[in-house]
Amino acid sequence: MQLESMYQEIILDHYRRPHHKGLQELYDVEVHHVNPTCGDEVTVRVRITADGAHVVDEISYDGLGCSISQASTSVMTDLVSGKPLEEALAVQQEFLTLMQSKGADIADTDIDEDLLEDAVAFVGVSRYPARIKCALLGWMAFKDAAAQAVAAKEQT
Amino acid sequence: MSTLLGLDVTRIKADFPILSRTVRDGRRLVYLDSGATSQKPVQVLDAERAFYTQHNAAVHRGAHQLAEEATDAYESARATIAAFIGAQPDEIVFTKNATEGINLVAYAMSNATTAGPESARFVVGPGDSIVVTEMEHHANLVPWQMLAQRTGATLRWLGLTDDGRLDLSNLDEVVDATTKMVAFVHQSNVLGTINPVETLVRRAREVGALVLVDACQSVPHQSTDVHAIGADFLVFSGHKMLGPLGIGVLWGRPELLAAMPPFLTGGSMIEVVHMEGSTFAAPPQRFEAGVPMAAQAVGLAAACDYLTSIGMDAVAAHEHELTGRAIEGLSALPGVRIIGPVTTEARGGAVSFVVDGIHPHDVGQVLDDRGVEVRVGHHCAWPLTRRYGVPATTRATFYLYNDAADVDALVDAVKAAQAFFGSA
Ligand SMILES: Cc1ncc(COP(=O)(O)O)c(C=O)c1O
What we know:
Number of helices of chain A: 6
Low-confidence stretches of chain B: none
Strand content of chain A: 15-25%
Radius of gyration of chain B: 22 Å
Oligomer: heterodimer
Number of strands of chain B: 19
Number of helices of chain B: 14
Mean pLDDT of chain A: 93
Distance between the termini of chain B: 29 Å
Shape of chain A: globular
Radius of gyration of chain A: 15 Å
Helix content of chain A: 40-55%
Number of domains of chain A: 1
Low-confidence stretches of chain A: none
Number of strands of chain A: 3
Helix content of chain B: 25-40%
Bound molecules: pyridoxal-5'-phosphate
CATH class of chain A: Alpha Beta
Structural class of chain B: alpha/beta
CATH architecture of chain A: Alpha-Beta Complex
Shape of chain B: globular
Distance between the termini of chain A: 54 Å
Strand order of the largest sheet of chain B: 6-12-11-10-9-7-8
Largest sheet of chain A: 3 strands, antiparallel
């Protein structure tokens, strides 16, 4: 039974009691991403500060999908919230690397567990190619929203 | 347990080497995804291998002995496959899959705009309509959307009833004097519904529209006679009926194929070629540009022979039994809802369902962990899942190599998913 290694308690907790779910009024950018193979969708709203650090000071989302896509988005919002964008995107990049690790033991990789915090729980997902896209849905939406938010700030 | 209504499933399973492998740490493979693609018996694999080891050459080119043998194997395969659906060999065109067959007709229809007067009856344009249904696979929807876009015609569709059937209450308004093509699925790959072909064909005939039947999920599972169906075109894929990947069939009425302009052009499909222009071969060659997939044709013919030896009526009866067992077993679980007809009447063996509180992806993951391989998602019929207000479904599909134990494994695995996620 490998299910427990995939659906770690942290994941099920976030799925049942998501954080930052429900779209908030304070935002610079809203993006909507879908996974065309399964129809999962997520809307992410992001606001960043106008100073050079571009701190993620507001993030919220709403979505429809499996436990992996929804829990992963919830964990993502916890991890990027309050961080300068550069740090937030570093976590995003690390999560991407985790998802590409094909189920390798983290100890055998360069993956920085401390950076990933709770997101490390998704390591089991990397063994199931069909589910990686689920786990990445919210993270890719955040990356997209962040890029748009920076572009918008730089325009004004 | 494995013998239902005369099918010796134990013996049949022995013909499919893949069914004896295990998955996910030693679990017995319970393959319930034949609607996506079927497994292949050794008879099909051997036929393909024999083609390559003994007769391989480019078909319809060259006069050496191997070319003759390869061409003969390819054309004999055509005859076998045509006979399997009650057609003549010249009435069937080999394509890559059903998707290509539908695109072939849709592109031929737009090519008709610039072809000669003989193809006038394929021309569509502003003021004309093309009719599909809300239960179509994307393969029988997007090509018609695109044809409408290219030509200015309007796309219309028949809606669905809450119990998973076509809503025919406004058939006479949707299919009217402007309608040039009615394209519909014979058996839904999501709902299992078998559509009333006769009613739809009769209405299309009243208004002079062409009819294309997507028979992807019917030809593999029930005896098919194209003349009894009465359509103008019918498509299916070889890989869903024990045949190899990479081959599909378009059947067309001979007089229509003869008048239809080509879709893909190049070698093998020509009559005479000059620098200034070319004329085209008679069907079916006109629609088979390039070196064809002879080995796959041979494999598909072997699949037809295999199915014929078992008997399509026996296959259909067997699946009917399994479908009934699945509907009964799943319906009995609290929190499980079947999307599609809940009786076995006019229904084939695709059973889609949702489980309260558990996303289909997660249901599928638990099933997979137990070796039960089903499909989850929108099954390439997104408007259909949207119509039923669900983001996706879990779908089990049955074939001749499944037995009651497979159905029971499915039902048990759904219970396990409910236990794992604590939803029942
Ligand atoms: C009803 C139906 N139509 C069309 C198709 C497309 O078949 P293929 O992908 O082999 O072209 C499928 C296969 O999924 C199907 O089930």
